[in-house]
Amino acid sequence: ATTRHHEWEISYQLKSPDCVRKLAVTINGQSPGPTIRATQGDTIVVRVNNSLLTENAAIHWHGIRQIGTPWADGTEGVTQCPILPGDTFTYTFAVDRPGTYMYHAHYGMQRSAGLYGMIVVAAAPGGPDAEPFAYDGEHDVLLNDWWHDSTYEQAAGLASVPMRWVEEPQSLLINGRGRFNCSASAAAAAEEGTCNATLAECDAPVFDVVPGKTYRFRVGSLTSLCALNFEIEGHPMTVVEADGHYVKPFVVNNLNIYSGETYSVLIKADQDPNRNYWLASNVVSRKPGTPTGTAILSYAGGRSPPPTTPPAGPAWNDTMYRFRQSEATVAHPAHVEPPPPRANRTILLLNTQNKIDGRVRWALNNVSFKLPHTPYLVAMKRGLLGAFDQRPPPETYEYQSYNIYDPPPNPNATSSDGVYRLQFGSVVDVILQNANMLDANKSETHPWHLHGHDFWVLGYGIGRFDPKVHPATYNLKDPILKNTVAVHPYGWTALRFKADNPGVWAFHCHIEAHFFMGMGIVFEEGIERVAELPGEIMGCGKTKGGRH
Ligand code: C2O
Ligand code: CU
User: Looking at this predicted complex, what is its ipTM?
Assistant: First the structure.
Protein backbone atom coordinates (compact mmCIF):
# COMPACT_ATOMS: atom_id res chain seq x y z
CA ALA A 1 0.00 0.00 0.00
CA THR A 2 1.14 3.48 -0.90
CA THR A 3 0.51 6.88 0.61
CA ARG A 4 -0.54 9.36 -2.05
CA HIS A 5 -0.09 13.03 -1.32
CA HIS A 6 -2.05 15.77 -3.00
CA GLU A 7 -1.68 19.50 -2.57
CA TRP A 8 -4.84 21.38 -3.50
CA GLU A 9 -5.53 25.06 -3.74
CA ILE A 10 -9.19 26.03 -3.74
CA SER A 11 -9.89 29.30 -5.53
CA TYR A 12 -12.44 31.18 -7.57
CA GLN A 13 -11.64 31.36 -11.27
CA LEU A 14 -13.52 32.72 -14.24
CA LYS A 15 -14.56 29.65 -16.18
CA SER A 16 -16.73 28.93 -19.20
CA PRO A 17 -17.69 25.28 -18.79
CA ASP A 18 -20.71 25.69 -21.08
CA CYS A 19 -19.25 28.61 -23.08
CA VAL A 20 -20.77 31.13 -20.64
CA ARG A 21 -18.33 32.88 -18.35
CA LYS A 22 -18.98 32.44 -14.67
CA LEU A 23 -17.09 32.37 -11.38
CA ALA A 24 -16.40 28.76 -10.44
CA VAL A 25 -14.79 27.23 -7.38
CA THR A 26 -11.78 25.31 -8.65
CA ILE A 27 -9.07 22.98 -7.41
CA ASN A 28 -5.64 23.97 -8.71
CA GLY A 29 -7.49 26.01 -11.31
CA GLN A 30 -9.67 23.12 -12.51
CA SER A 31 -13.35 22.23 -12.31
CA PRO A 32 -13.95 19.36 -12.01
CA GLY A 33 -10.87 18.91 -9.87
CA PRO A 34 -8.16 16.32 -10.52
CA THR A 35 -9.18 12.66 -10.43
CA ILE A 36 -7.71 10.87 -7.44
CA ARG A 37 -6.34 7.50 -8.54
CA ALA A 38 -5.29 4.89 -6.04
CA THR A 39 -5.15 1.20 -5.32
CA GLN A 40 -7.23 -0.49 -2.67
CA GLY A 41 -5.45 -0.22 0.66
CA ASP A 42 -3.70 3.05 -0.15
CA THR A 43 -3.77 6.06 2.12
CA ILE A 44 -4.78 9.35 0.57
CA VAL A 45 -3.49 12.62 1.97
CA VAL A 46 -5.00 15.80 0.62
CA ARG A 47 -3.72 19.11 1.90
CA VAL A 48 -6.43 21.65 1.13
CA ASN A 49 -5.47 25.31 1.03
CA ASN A 50 -8.53 27.53 1.06
CA SER A 51 -7.71 30.50 -1.17
CA LEU A 52 -11.32 31.61 -1.62
CA LEU A 53 -10.61 34.88 0.26
CA THR A 54 -14.14 35.31 1.64
CA GLU A 55 -15.65 31.84 1.69
CA ASN A 56 -15.29 28.78 3.89
CA ALA A 57 -14.77 25.30 2.48
CA ALA A 58 -14.95 21.60 3.35
CA ILE A 59 -14.50 18.56 1.12
CA HIS A 60 -16.36 15.28 1.48
CA TRP A 61 -15.03 11.96 0.09
CA HIS A 62 -18.27 10.50 -1.14
CA GLY A 63 -18.47 6.72 -0.79
CA ILE A 64 -15.31 6.41 1.32
CA ARG A 65 -16.39 5.03 4.68
CA GLN A 66 -13.69 6.70 6.80
CA ILE A 67 -13.28 3.70 9.08
CA GLY A 68 -11.24 4.94 12.02
CA THR A 69 -11.03 8.49 10.62
CA PRO A 70 -14.54 9.96 11.10
CA TRP A 71 -13.00 13.44 11.39
CA ALA A 72 -11.84 13.24 7.76
CA ASP A 73 -15.37 12.90 6.32
CA GLY A 74 -15.36 16.57 5.36
CA THR A 75 -18.93 17.37 6.34
CA GLU A 76 -19.11 20.88 7.70
CA GLY A 77 -21.19 21.06 10.87
CA VAL A 78 -21.15 17.29 11.30
CA THR A 79 -17.52 16.19 11.36
CA GLN A 80 -15.58 19.44 11.20
CA CYS A 81 -15.58 23.21 11.40
CA PRO A 82 -15.32 24.89 8.01
CA ILE A 83 -11.86 25.58 6.60
CA LEU A 84 -11.56 29.35 6.87
CA PRO A 85 -10.23 31.51 4.05
CA GLY A 86 -6.45 31.40 4.16
CA ASP A 87 -6.43 28.23 6.28
CA THR A 88 -5.14 24.78 5.43
CA PHE A 89 -6.70 21.45 6.36
CA THR A 90 -5.23 18.01 5.74
CA TYR A 91 -7.51 15.07 5.04
CA THR A 92 -5.93 11.67 5.61
CA PHE A 93 -7.93 8.52 4.97
CA ALA A 94 -7.66 5.00 3.61
CA VAL A 95 -9.38 3.73 0.50
CA ASP A 96 -10.19 0.21 1.64
CA ARG A 97 -12.43 -0.87 -1.22
CA PRO A 98 -11.95 -0.78 -4.98
CA GLY A 99 -14.48 1.08 -7.05
CA THR A 100 -15.70 4.39 -8.38
CA TYR A 101 -16.18 7.22 -5.91
CA MET A 102 -16.34 10.98 -5.93
CA TYR A 103 -15.50 14.01 -3.84
CA HIS A 104 -17.22 17.34 -3.50
CA ALA A 105 -17.66 20.41 -1.34
CA HIS A 106 -19.86 19.86 1.71
CA TYR A 107 -20.30 23.44 2.79
CA GLY A 108 -23.50 25.33 1.97
CA MET A 109 -24.26 24.88 -1.72
CA GLN A 110 -20.62 25.13 -2.74
CA ARG A 111 -20.68 21.85 -4.66
CA SER A 112 -22.87 23.56 -7.29
CA ALA A 113 -20.17 26.15 -7.79
CA GLY A 114 -17.84 23.57 -9.30
CA LEU A 115 -15.92 22.02 -6.40
CA TYR A 116 -16.14 18.31 -7.24
CA GLY A 117 -14.25 15.43 -8.81
CA MET A 118 -13.77 11.69 -9.07
CA ILE A 119 -11.95 9.03 -7.05
CA VAL A 120 -10.97 5.83 -8.86
CA VAL A 121 -9.70 2.97 -6.72
CA ALA A 122 -8.25 -0.07 -8.47
CA ALA A 123 -8.66 -3.50 -6.92
CA ALA A 124 -5.61 -4.87 -5.14
CA PRO A 125 -4.04 -7.15 -7.75
CA GLY A 126 -4.81 -10.82 -7.13
CA GLY A 127 -6.96 -9.96 -4.11
CA PRO A 128 -10.48 -11.18 -3.35
CA ASP A 129 -11.99 -7.95 -4.69
CA ALA A 130 -10.59 -8.30 -8.22
CA GLU A 131 -13.17 -7.44 -10.89
CA PRO A 132 -15.36 -10.31 -12.06
CA PHE A 133 -15.24 -8.88 -15.60
CA ALA A 134 -12.65 -7.99 -18.21
CA TYR A 135 -12.07 -4.97 -20.41
CA ASP A 136 -9.39 -3.48 -22.65
CA GLY A 137 -9.61 0.18 -21.74
CA GLU A 138 -11.26 2.57 -19.36
CA HIS A 139 -12.90 5.99 -19.48
CA ASP A 140 -14.24 8.20 -16.67
CA VAL A 141 -17.45 10.16 -17.08
CA LEU A 142 -18.52 12.65 -14.43
CA LEU A 143 -21.98 14.14 -14.97
CA ASN A 144 -23.28 17.39 -13.57
CA ASP A 145 -25.82 20.14 -14.06
CA TRP A 146 -24.90 23.82 -14.26
CA TRP A 147 -26.55 27.16 -13.60
CA HIS A 148 -25.53 30.65 -14.56
CA ASP A 149 -26.79 32.15 -11.29
CA SER A 150 -24.26 32.02 -8.49
CA THR A 151 -24.87 29.59 -5.65
CA TYR A 152 -25.35 32.64 -3.40
CA GLU A 153 -28.22 33.84 -5.55
CA GLN A 154 -29.65 30.34 -5.49
CA ALA A 155 -29.34 29.91 -1.73
CA ALA A 156 -30.77 33.38 -1.03
CA GLY A 157 -33.72 32.61 -3.32
CA LEU A 158 -34.43 29.30 -1.60
CA ALA A 159 -34.46 30.94 1.82
CA SER A 160 -36.73 33.81 0.72
CA VAL A 161 -40.47 34.36 1.29
CA PRO A 162 -41.86 33.65 -1.20
CA MET A 163 -39.25 31.14 -2.22
CA ARG A 164 -37.45 31.67 -5.50
CA TRP A 165 -36.74 28.18 -6.83
CA VAL A 166 -33.45 27.51 -8.65
CA GLU A 167 -35.40 26.32 -11.73
CA GLU A 168 -33.94 23.95 -14.31
CA PRO A 169 -30.19 24.16 -15.03
CA GLN A 170 -28.90 26.00 -18.08
CA SER A 171 -26.60 23.17 -19.10
CA LEU A 172 -25.71 19.55 -18.46
CA LEU A 173 -21.97 18.96 -18.13
CA ILE A 174 -19.92 15.89 -19.00
CA ASN A 175 -16.49 16.03 -17.39
CA GLY A 176 -17.09 19.71 -16.76
CA ARG A 177 -18.05 20.64 -20.29
CA GLY A 178 -21.35 21.60 -21.82
CA ARG A 179 -22.65 23.81 -24.53
CA PHE A 180 -25.05 26.68 -24.00
CA ASN A 181 -26.66 27.90 -27.21
CA CYS A 182 -25.16 31.39 -27.43
CA SER A 183 -27.14 32.40 -30.48
CA ALA A 184 -30.61 31.33 -29.37
CA SER A 185 -33.19 33.82 -28.22
CA ALA A 186 -33.83 35.74 -25.06
CA ALA A 187 -31.88 33.54 -22.68
CA ALA A 188 -28.79 34.04 -24.81
CA ALA A 189 -29.30 37.78 -24.99
CA ALA A 190 -29.17 37.90 -21.21
CA GLU A 191 -25.73 36.28 -21.37
CA GLU A 192 -24.48 38.77 -23.94
CA GLY A 193 -20.82 39.43 -23.74
CA THR A 194 -20.19 36.36 -21.57
CA CYS A 195 -21.13 33.65 -24.05
CA ASN A 196 -18.47 32.54 -26.48
CA ALA A 197 -19.15 29.37 -28.43
CA THR A 198 -15.68 29.35 -29.98
CA LEU A 199 -13.86 28.66 -26.70
CA ALA A 200 -11.96 25.37 -26.67
CA GLU A 201 -12.90 25.19 -22.98
CA CYS A 202 -16.47 24.20 -23.91
CA ASP A 203 -15.65 21.79 -26.74
CA ALA A 204 -17.37 18.44 -26.28
CA PRO A 205 -15.19 15.87 -24.50
CA VAL A 206 -13.96 13.04 -26.74
CA PHE A 207 -13.67 9.40 -25.67
CA ASP A 208 -11.47 7.36 -27.98
CA VAL A 209 -12.16 3.71 -28.69
CA VAL A 210 -10.47 1.12 -30.87
CA PRO A 211 -12.81 -1.04 -32.96
CA GLY A 212 -13.48 -4.45 -31.47
CA LYS A 213 -12.31 -3.58 -27.97
CA THR A 214 -14.33 -3.58 -24.76
CA TYR A 215 -14.36 -0.49 -22.54
CA ARG A 216 -15.25 0.14 -18.97
CA PHE A 217 -16.95 3.49 -18.49
CA ARG A 218 -17.00 4.68 -14.92
CA VAL A 219 -19.98 6.99 -14.70
CA GLY A 220 -20.72 9.22 -11.72
CA SER A 221 -23.26 11.95 -11.12
CA LEU A 222 -22.89 14.91 -8.82
CA THR A 223 -25.80 16.92 -10.12
CA SER A 224 -27.24 19.54 -7.82
CA LEU A 225 -30.76 18.79 -8.93
CA CYS A 226 -31.28 16.54 -11.93
CA ALA A 227 -31.88 12.85 -12.20
CA LEU A 228 -30.12 11.89 -15.41
CA ASN A 229 -30.27 9.28 -18.10
CA PHE A 230 -26.94 8.44 -19.72
CA GLU A 231 -26.69 6.79 -23.12
CA ILE A 232 -23.95 5.89 -25.57
CA GLU A 233 -25.60 5.97 -28.95
CA GLY A 234 -25.80 2.53 -30.57
CA HIS A 235 -23.91 0.83 -27.72
CA PRO A 236 -25.84 -1.22 -25.17
CA MET A 237 -24.22 -1.08 -21.75
CA THR A 238 -23.63 -3.95 -19.34
CA VAL A 239 -23.90 -2.65 -15.79
CA VAL A 240 -21.15 -4.25 -13.65
CA GLU A 241 -20.52 -1.95 -10.68
CA ALA A 242 -22.63 0.34 -8.52
CA ASP A 243 -21.19 2.58 -5.76
CA GLY A 244 -18.07 0.40 -5.46
CA HIS A 245 -19.87 -2.95 -5.47
CA TYR A 246 -20.02 -5.53 -8.22
CA VAL A 247 -23.41 -5.97 -9.83
CA LYS A 248 -24.96 -9.08 -11.33
CA PRO A 249 -24.46 -7.96 -14.94
CA PHE A 250 -27.50 -6.68 -16.81
CA VAL A 251 -27.79 -4.90 -20.11
CA VAL A 252 -29.45 -1.55 -20.66
CA ASN A 253 -29.72 0.78 -23.64
CA ASN A 254 -29.39 3.70 -21.29
CA LEU A 255 -28.60 4.18 -17.63
CA ASN A 256 -30.60 6.15 -15.08
CA ILE A 257 -28.23 7.75 -12.63
CA TYR A 258 -29.08 9.87 -9.60
CA SER A 259 -26.93 12.42 -7.88
CA GLY A 260 -24.40 10.70 -5.64
CA GLU A 261 -24.43 7.41 -7.54
CA THR A 262 -21.63 5.82 -9.52
CA TYR A 263 -21.79 2.94 -11.98
CA SER A 264 -19.39 1.07 -14.18
CA VAL A 265 -20.71 -0.14 -17.51
CA LEU A 266 -19.01 -2.16 -20.22
CA ILE A 267 -19.48 -1.41 -23.89
CA LYS A 268 -18.09 -3.11 -26.94
CA ALA A 269 -16.82 -0.89 -29.76
CA ASP A 270 -18.54 -2.99 -32.40
CA GLN A 271 -20.37 -0.39 -34.48
CA ASP A 272 -19.50 1.10 -37.88
CA PRO A 273 -15.97 2.45 -37.25
CA ASN A 274 -16.20 5.05 -40.00
CA ARG A 275 -18.18 7.48 -37.89
CA ASN A 276 -18.46 8.75 -34.33
CA TYR A 277 -21.28 8.35 -31.80
CA TRP A 278 -22.90 10.52 -29.16
CA LEU A 279 -22.63 10.22 -25.44
CA ALA A 280 -25.80 11.84 -24.15
CA SER A 281 -27.01 13.01 -20.76
CA ASN A 282 -30.72 13.82 -20.45
CA VAL A 283 -32.90 15.00 -17.58
CA VAL A 284 -35.47 12.52 -16.31
CA SER A 285 -37.99 12.61 -13.45
CA ARG A 286 -38.46 16.40 -13.77
CA LYS A 287 -39.92 17.97 -16.90
CA PRO A 288 -36.72 18.80 -18.80
CA GLY A 289 -35.92 22.43 -19.48
CA THR A 290 -32.29 21.79 -20.36
CA PRO A 291 -30.78 20.65 -23.66
CA THR A 292 -29.09 17.24 -23.88
CA GLY A 293 -25.53 17.19 -22.58
CA THR A 294 -23.23 15.65 -25.17
CA ALA A 295 -19.78 14.19 -25.71
CA ILE A 296 -18.26 12.19 -28.55
CA LEU A 297 -17.36 8.52 -28.73
CA SER A 298 -14.64 8.54 -31.34
CA TYR A 299 -13.79 5.54 -33.51
CA ALA A 300 -12.32 7.69 -36.18
CA GLY A 301 -9.74 9.29 -33.94
CA GLY A 302 -11.07 12.75 -34.72
CA ARG A 303 -13.61 14.89 -32.99
CA SER A 304 -16.08 15.24 -35.84
CA PRO A 305 -19.66 15.31 -34.57
CA PRO A 306 -21.73 12.21 -35.29
CA PRO A 307 -24.08 12.51 -38.29
CA THR A 308 -27.12 11.84 -36.07
CA THR A 309 -29.21 13.69 -33.50
CA PRO A 310 -28.08 12.95 -29.94
CA PRO A 311 -30.30 10.41 -28.13
CA ALA A 312 -33.15 12.12 -26.28
CA GLY A 313 -33.39 9.50 -23.54
CA PRO A 314 -36.54 7.75 -22.27
CA ALA A 315 -39.75 9.63 -21.47
CA TRP A 316 -38.91 11.89 -18.54
CA ASN A 317 -41.99 10.83 -16.60
CA ASP A 318 -41.67 7.06 -17.09
CA THR A 319 -41.25 6.30 -13.40
CA MET A 320 -41.74 2.57 -13.86
CA TYR A 321 -38.87 2.39 -16.33
CA ARG A 322 -36.53 3.87 -13.75
CA PHE A 323 -38.06 1.80 -10.96
CA ARG A 324 -37.36 -1.43 -12.83
CA GLN A 325 -33.73 -0.45 -13.44
CA SER A 326 -33.32 0.21 -9.71
CA GLU A 327 -34.78 -3.21 -8.95
CA ALA A 328 -32.49 -4.90 -11.50
CA THR A 329 -29.42 -3.74 -9.60
CA VAL A 330 -28.45 -6.65 -7.33
CA ALA A 331 -25.15 -8.10 -6.10
CA HIS A 332 -22.88 -10.13 -8.35
CA PRO A 333 -23.32 -13.84 -7.47
CA ALA A 334 -19.65 -14.24 -6.58
CA HIS A 335 -19.64 -11.09 -4.43
CA VAL A 336 -22.78 -11.37 -2.36
CA GLU A 337 -22.39 -10.08 1.17
CA PRO A 338 -25.59 -11.28 2.80
CA PRO A 339 -27.31 -8.79 5.09
CA PRO A 340 -28.08 -9.64 8.71
CA PRO A 341 -31.43 -11.46 8.66
CA ARG A 342 -33.23 -8.91 10.82
CA ALA A 343 -32.96 -5.43 12.18
CA ASN A 344 -32.74 -4.30 15.77
CA ARG A 345 -34.41 -1.02 14.98
CA THR A 346 -36.57 0.31 12.16
CA ILE A 347 -36.80 4.00 11.38
CA LEU A 348 -39.62 5.11 9.09
CA LEU A 349 -38.98 8.47 7.44
CA LEU A 350 -41.77 10.29 5.68
CA ASN A 351 -40.33 12.71 3.11
CA THR A 352 -42.49 15.81 2.82
CA GLN A 353 -42.28 19.35 1.62
CA ASN A 354 -43.43 21.75 4.31
CA LYS A 355 -43.50 25.34 5.45
CA ILE A 356 -41.77 26.92 8.40
CA ASP A 357 -42.35 30.64 9.03
CA GLY A 358 -43.59 30.96 5.48
CA ARG A 359 -40.42 29.38 4.06
CA VAL A 360 -40.56 26.22 2.03
CA ARG A 361 -38.63 23.41 3.71
CA TRP A 362 -38.24 19.66 3.40
CA ALA A 363 -38.89 17.50 6.44
CA LEU A 364 -38.60 13.94 7.72
CA ASN A 365 -41.51 12.99 9.94
CA ASN A 366 -42.29 16.70 10.04
CA VAL A 367 -38.84 17.69 11.29
CA SER A 368 -36.66 19.79 9.03
CA PHE A 369 -32.93 19.47 9.53
CA LYS A 370 -30.68 22.39 10.38
CA LEU A 371 -26.94 22.17 10.90
CA PRO A 372 -25.59 23.14 14.32
CA HIS A 373 -22.76 25.65 14.74
CA THR A 374 -20.59 23.16 16.57
CA PRO A 375 -19.78 19.97 14.65
CA TYR A 376 -21.56 17.01 16.25
CA LEU A 377 -18.40 14.95 16.33
CA VAL A 378 -16.68 17.47 18.57
CA ALA A 379 -19.77 18.30 20.60
CA MET A 380 -20.43 14.65 21.44
CA LYS A 381 -16.87 13.64 22.05
CA ARG A 382 -16.32 16.59 24.35
CA GLY A 383 -19.76 16.49 25.96
CA LEU A 384 -20.49 20.08 24.98
CA LEU A 385 -24.01 20.39 26.28
CA GLY A 386 -26.38 22.66 24.46
CA ALA A 387 -24.48 22.33 21.19
CA PHE A 388 -27.47 20.57 19.62
CA ASP A 389 -31.00 19.47 20.46
CA GLN A 390 -30.80 16.51 22.85
CA ARG A 391 -34.32 15.29 22.11
CA PRO A 392 -34.35 12.31 19.74
CA PRO A 393 -36.09 12.99 16.42
CA PRO A 394 -39.22 10.94 15.61
CA GLU A 395 -38.79 7.29 14.53
CA THR A 396 -42.00 7.05 12.58
CA TYR A 397 -45.10 8.83 11.33
CA GLU A 398 -48.80 8.02 11.03
CA TYR A 399 -48.18 5.44 8.34
CA GLN A 400 -51.63 3.87 8.67
CA SER A 401 -53.42 7.07 7.84
CA TYR A 402 -51.06 9.45 6.05
CA ASN A 403 -52.22 9.95 2.47
CA ILE A 404 -49.03 10.09 0.40
CA TYR A 405 -50.97 11.08 -2.72
CA ASP A 406 -52.17 14.42 -1.33
CA PRO A 407 -50.23 17.51 -0.29
CA PRO A 408 -49.55 17.51 3.47
CA PRO A 409 -52.83 18.33 5.25
CA ASN A 410 -50.94 20.55 7.67
CA PRO A 411 -47.84 21.88 5.93
CA ASN A 412 -46.30 23.26 9.12
CA ALA A 413 -43.16 21.56 10.36
CA THR A 414 -40.53 22.21 13.00
CA SER A 415 -36.80 22.36 12.56
CA SER A 416 -34.21 20.61 14.67
CA ASP A 417 -30.58 19.56 14.83
CA GLY A 418 -31.39 16.46 16.89
CA VAL A 419 -29.57 13.18 16.21
CA TYR A 420 -30.53 9.52 15.85
CA ARG A 421 -28.20 7.77 18.28
CA LEU A 422 -27.64 4.16 17.31
CA GLN A 423 -26.51 1.31 19.48
CA PHE A 424 -23.02 0.39 18.37
CA GLY A 425 -23.05 -2.77 16.29
CA SER A 426 -26.82 -2.83 15.93
CA VAL A 427 -28.63 -3.45 12.65
CA VAL A 428 -30.77 -0.57 11.49
CA ASP A 429 -33.50 -0.51 8.84
CA VAL A 430 -34.53 2.77 7.32
CA ILE A 431 -37.65 3.07 5.22
CA LEU A 432 -37.81 6.20 3.12
CA GLN A 433 -41.38 6.98 2.19
CA ASN A 434 -41.96 9.51 -0.55
CA ALA A 435 -45.14 11.58 -0.75
CA ASN A 436 -46.84 14.41 -2.56
CA MET A 437 -45.20 17.83 -2.42
CA LEU A 438 -46.95 21.09 -1.49
CA ASP A 439 -48.40 21.33 -5.01
CA ALA A 440 -51.01 18.76 -5.97
CA ASN A 441 -50.02 15.82 -8.20
CA LYS A 442 -46.30 16.26 -7.70
CA SER A 443 -43.75 13.92 -6.18
CA GLU A 444 -40.08 13.88 -7.14
CA THR A 445 -37.19 11.44 -7.02
CA HIS A 446 -34.87 11.85 -4.02
CA PRO A 447 -31.41 10.27 -4.06
CA TRP A 448 -30.55 9.52 -0.44
CA HIS A 449 -26.88 9.26 0.53
CA LEU A 450 -25.44 7.80 3.73
CA HIS A 451 -22.02 8.80 5.00
CA GLY A 452 -19.71 6.33 6.72
CA HIS A 453 -21.44 3.17 5.44
CA ASP A 454 -22.68 1.14 2.58
CA PHE A 455 -26.22 -0.13 3.06
CA TRP A 456 -28.12 -3.05 1.61
CA VAL A 457 -30.98 -2.05 -0.62
CA LEU A 458 -33.69 -4.43 0.54
CA GLY A 459 -36.55 -3.29 -1.59
CA TYR A 460 -38.46 -0.65 -3.46
CA GLY A 461 -42.15 -0.02 -3.88
CA ILE A 462 -44.55 2.46 -5.34
CA GLY A 463 -47.29 3.56 -2.97
CA ARG A 464 -47.60 3.37 0.79
CA PHE A 465 -45.16 1.23 2.75
CA ASP A 466 -46.87 -1.18 5.09
CA PRO A 467 -44.62 -2.46 7.91
CA LYS A 468 -46.84 -5.51 8.27
CA VAL A 469 -46.67 -6.53 4.63
CA HIS A 470 -43.59 -5.29 2.82
CA PRO A 471 -40.72 -6.58 4.97
CA ALA A 472 -41.75 -10.08 3.85
CA THR A 473 -40.91 -9.04 0.27
CA TYR A 474 -37.37 -7.85 1.04
CA ASN A 475 -34.48 -9.21 -0.98
CA LEU A 476 -32.26 -10.80 1.69
CA LYS A 477 -30.60 -13.09 -0.82
CA ASP A 478 -28.48 -10.84 -3.03
CA PRO A 479 -29.22 -7.17 -2.30
CA ILE A 480 -26.71 -4.70 -3.65
CA LEU A 481 -24.66 -2.61 -1.24
CA LYS A 482 -24.74 1.10 -2.08
CA ASN A 483 -24.14 4.45 -0.49
CA THR A 484 -26.80 6.34 -2.46
CA VAL A 485 -30.24 5.14 -3.47
CA ALA A 486 -33.25 6.62 -5.19
CA VAL A 487 -36.65 7.00 -3.64
CA HIS A 488 -39.00 7.12 -6.59
CA PRO A 489 -42.03 9.42 -6.90
CA TYR A 490 -44.79 8.27 -4.50
CA GLY A 491 -42.57 5.32 -3.68
CA TRP A 492 -40.63 3.84 -0.81
CA THR A 493 -37.15 2.38 -0.47
CA ALA A 494 -36.02 0.08 2.33
CA LEU A 495 -32.37 -0.17 3.34
CA ARG A 496 -30.38 -1.86 6.08
CA PHE A 497 -26.99 -1.13 7.57
CA LYS A 498 -24.87 -2.12 10.49
CA ALA A 499 -24.03 0.71 12.88
CA ASP A 500 -20.44 -0.43 13.28
CA ASN A 501 -18.41 2.60 12.20
CA PRO A 502 -17.71 4.86 15.17
CA GLY A 503 -18.53 8.44 14.29
CA VAL A 504 -21.26 10.85 13.34
CA TRP A 505 -22.72 10.44 9.89
CA ALA A 506 -24.99 12.52 7.73
CA PHE A 507 -27.81 10.86 5.80
CA HIS A 508 -29.50 13.17 3.36
CA CYS A 509 -31.05 13.82 -0.01
CA HIS A 510 -28.22 14.50 -2.43
CA ILE A 511 -30.12 17.24 -4.23
CA GLU A 512 -28.17 20.30 -3.13
CA ALA A 513 -31.25 22.50 -2.72
CA HIS A 514 -33.16 19.81 -0.81
CA PHE A 515 -30.45 19.26 1.80
CA PHE A 516 -30.12 23.03 2.07
CA MET A 517 -33.88 23.11 2.78
CA GLY A 518 -33.64 20.55 5.56
CA MET A 519 -33.85 17.16 3.85
CA GLY A 520 -31.48 15.17 6.00
CA ILE A 521 -30.79 13.55 9.35
CA VAL A 522 -27.69 12.57 11.33
CA PHE A 523 -26.73 9.25 12.93
CA GLU A 524 -24.30 8.73 15.78
CA GLU A 525 -22.78 5.39 16.70
CA GLY A 526 -19.92 4.33 18.95
CA ILE A 527 -18.81 7.89 19.73
CA GLU A 528 -16.97 6.54 22.78
CA ARG A 529 -14.78 4.46 20.46
CA VAL A 530 -13.64 7.41 18.38
CA ALA A 531 -9.95 8.13 18.95
CA GLU A 532 -8.70 11.53 20.01
CA LEU A 533 -9.91 14.19 17.62
CA PRO A 534 -7.43 16.26 15.63
CA GLY A 535 -7.49 19.90 16.69
CA GLU A 536 -7.76 20.89 13.06
CA ILE A 537 -11.48 20.07 12.92
CA MET A 538 -12.26 22.56 15.71
CA GLY A 539 -12.33 26.32 16.04
CA CYS A 540 -15.99 27.16 15.53
CA GLY A 541 -19.16 27.29 17.64
CA LYS A 542 -18.52 26.08 21.16
CA THR A 543 -15.01 25.00 20.23
CA LYS A 544 -13.76 28.52 19.55
CA GLY A 545 -10.36 29.01 21.04
CA GLY A 546 -10.10 25.30 21.77
CA ARG A 547 -8.15 24.68 18.66
CA HIS A 548 -4.52 25.22 19.52
CU1 C2O B 1 -22.07 13.42 -1.59
CU2 C2O B 1 -23.30 14.39 2.18
O3 C2O B 1 -22.78 13.99 0.26
CU1 CU C 1 -34.62 15.48 -2.45
Answer: 0.97
